[in-house]
Amino acid sequence: MEFPHGLRALNHDEFRRFYFSQFAAQIGSWMQNVAQAWLVLQLTNSPFKLGLLATLQFSPVLLFSIVSGAVADRLPKRPLLVVTQTTLACQGLLLALLVTTGHVEYWHVAVLGLFLGFANVADQPARQSFVMELVGRADVSSAVALNSAGFNLARIIGPAIAGVVIGRFGVGPTFLVNGLGFVAVIVTLLRMKTQGRPASGPRASIFEEIAEGVRYAAGTPRLRLAIGLVFVVSLCVFNFSVYVPLLAKNVLGLGAEGFGFLMASLGVGAVGGALTVGARAVRHPSVRSMLASGVLALSMLLALGATRRIELAVPLLFFTGYWGIMLMASCNTSIQLQAPDALRGRVMSIYTWVSGGVFPIGAFIVGTISQWWGVSVAFVWNGTLGLAAVAALALWWHLRRD
């Protein structure tokens, strides 16, 4: 069976099996993401502590992702992914045990969030560069779009299920499902033939290799632009684990099921954005489309800052997800295609560092502003800051070309 153009990466058997096992695990991860945010608000009722948790969870990405990219270029990627996926499974199961036995406290959630961050910092550059080896250059744009679509389809299904489960049974079962969801990924990886072996030949020291990857990214204008846009949108837009529970509870007065519905609407838009990127015939996304997507996603934050009704919040979150993922998937594709094979792990670790590493800073800002002035002010602040930054990047690109 041949898949259509936009889904052509699924023609690769190992990628197809890896993709669907990852999708199942991502549903569990989104269930845990919703449950974890709700659990923190139940335990503390503190926007600041919710933002602090996100900061702790993503701090390892900020501190170590570039190092982990160099490691990914040195090690076989499939065994490395088996280790990281096993670690993620254990984190979810331990949190389920603490909740189910009634012993969970905020510091438990915080420490396990930090533990999760260390597992993800090793997993992400290895997984993203492994995808290229499964599908090849010709189909990487399809693979990136499919991964984004699957991630965000899980964002729809996971929160929707989690909202119902939390409302009826509490948060414990969601953590259990997340832990068990990684088993399918581990089994799939163990059955693969592709090892993702590092390039052969003499190697420099790990710090010299890191410097080489950074120099390449800094010296390639299109990479600099893509990474700059990812930085802005990651800092200002992708703080949904802080934004949305506060919007649901403190602004709209919703419960757990309403929170899950808002997260699902965000995910529907994100899936649409990812599939739009995958369906395009162009290999390299245009700079104009990337800049426009960033402007539109940030504009949605300004509108969310003014909304007080769920009827308005739902479509605004939909379009925030749509344009935000349009930008992220386009930048991911552009970065993967610009990176040489021998440098891909290191270049993708910079993408990981920017996309996930700045999240602790953004989450801390959103949590702090929301604590003192409310989440509506946080929306407006980040929307305004982001639009100014995208305008500066657009001006730099224009002047560079003249």
What descriptive keywords fit this protein?
single chain; globular; mainly alpha; 83% helix; 402 residues; 15 helices; Growth Hormone, Chain: A
Q: How many individual domains?
A: 1
Run of helices and strands: HHHHHHHHHHHHHHH
Residue share in β-strands: under 5%
Largest sheet: none
Average residue-wise pLDDT: 81
Global structural class: mainly alpha
How many helical elements? Answer: 15
CATH C-level:
Mainly Alpha
CATH architecture: Up-down Bundle
Described by the principal axes of the CA atoms, the overall outline is globular
Q: Going by CATH, what is the homologous superfamily?
A: MFS general substrate transporter like domains
Helix content: over 70%
Q: According to CATH, what is the topology?
A: Growth Hormone, Chain: A
Question: What layout of secondary structure does this protein have?
Answer:
Layout (H helix, E strand, L loop, with lengths): L12 H32 L2 H28 L2 H24 L5 H30 L4 H30 L2 H19 L15 H13 L2 H16 L3 H12 L4 H24 L7 H20 L3 H29 L5 H14 L1 H15 L1 H27 L1
Helix pairs in contact: 1-4, 1-5, 1-6, 2-4, 2-7, 2-13, 2-14, 3-4, 3-6, 4-13, 5-10, 5-12, 7-13, 8-11, 8-12, 8-13, 8-15, 9-10, 9-14, 9-15, 10-12, 11-12, 11-15, 14-15
Structure description:
It is a single chain. The chain is mainly α. The protein has one domain (5-197, 205-401): MFS general substrate transporter like domains (Growth Hormone, Chain: A, Up-down Bundle), CATH 1.20.1250. It is 83% helix and 0% strand. The chain has helices at residues 13-44, 47-74, 77-100, 106-135, 140-169, 172-190, 206-218, 221-236, 240-251, 256-279, 287-306, 310-338, 344-357, 359-373, 375-401. The chain starts with 12 loop residues before the first helix and ends with a helix.
